[in-house]
Amino acid sequence: MKTKINKQNIHYRLRHWDLYLINILGLGLGICFYYIFGQKIEIIVACLAATISISTGLRQYKVEEDKIFKELFEKFNNLYDEKFNERLNEIVDNTLEVDEKLIVDYLNFCSEEYLWFRKHRIPYVVWSAWKEGILFHLRKEPIKRIAEKERIQKESYYGLFEALSI
């Protein structure tokens, strides 16, 4: 467990490495151009202004990515809680009659999650957790039987079945 904490600390400290690198390179270029093009301070200022502008744009891009992830995460978790969680557990526990439409809807829901993961909108760690939950349900009868029938239409599920290795 200690290595995970250390990796997380390193990741946290280096989360803006690209911004640091851009600004350091910009300063380095500014200093080089300062000496190459006649020791004018405006050259350094222009290079710094350009790199700060690039850094700000990159930071804004990352913030937008985080907003998109947050929206998707909340959407998927709320939909799962509202529509699937209780009913799937009842099917697994044999306390609810099998609802094939519900299971197909669940597979479509899972394939949408996987699609957003493939588009790099869902982080790997989140997808891994969701994947384990998906596999839990897909290994249980009668969900397994319906999923195997749906697996034939694999293009309809954006490669979900291949990703799950089932």
TrEMBL record:
It comes from the Bacteria. The chain crosses the membrane at residues 20-37. Keywords: Membrane, Transmembrane, Transmembrane helix. This is SLATT domain-containing protein. It comes from Salmonirosea aquatica.
